[in-house]
From TrEMBL:
Pathway: Amine and polyamine biosynthesis; carnitine biosynthesis. One of its GO terms (cellular component) is mitochondrion. Coiled coil: none annotated. GO terms for biological process: carnitine biosynthetic process. SUPFAM superfamilies: Clavaminate synthase-like. This is TauD/TfdA-like domain-containing protein. Signal peptide: none annotated. It comes from Ditylum brightwellii.
Length: 156
């Protein structure tokens, strides 16, 4: 079965003996920071479709989704003319390997190899910048949830 989770509900049953802090990030604010700090990386994360999969055989879950890390209103289909951010997709634990776009020249030659290398280099730079921003205390909320505390996450 393949579906997109709309809302996830997490309830703390019992805290971990060590660690166990819950970390939340403001993805929309982080995306705006990336747009200002590095428009090229923002564009890469708006245009690269990533695939996500979560399979849990014990519960029978098989969830799949695909889309860019940052979804924004596309203005005139040109680079760096993105409108408001409408969604964020970020889960490194469920992210599948990234696939490069098909060759622009139609054949798998040295030009395509160079295009592949550029694709992965730009994506690595963009993802590193994104992780750096998300890791900043400015965009993070760290909490110790107590038994009975419930968190709802509204996903796309």
């Amino acid at each position: 079965m393949s579906c997109i989770t709309i809302v996830q509900i997490f309830t703390m049953v019992s805290p971990a003996a060590e660690g166990g802090k819950s970390i939340f990030a403001d993805g929309f604010a982080a995306a705006e920071r990336l747009r200002i700090a590095d428009p090229t990386s923002f564009n890469v994360l708006c245009t690269t479709v990533r695939r996500y999969r979560s399979i849990d055989d014990a519960t029978g879950w098989h969830l799949e989704a695909r889309g860019p890390v940052i979804s924004a209103v596309n203005r005139k289909n040109k680079e760096h003319l993105w409108g408001p951010v409408t969604a964020i997709r970020h889960n490194d634990l469920d992210r599948l390997p990234d696939l490069p776009p098909p060759p622009s020249c139609g054949t798998f030659d040295t030009t395509w190899k160079k295009e592949q290398e550029e694709f992965y280099e730009k994506l690595q730079i963009a993802h590193s910048k994104w992780d750096e921003i998300l890791g900043s205390d400015e965009f993070r909320l760290v909490m110790d949830l107590q038994p009975g505390d419930t968190v709802l996450v509204a996903n796309q």
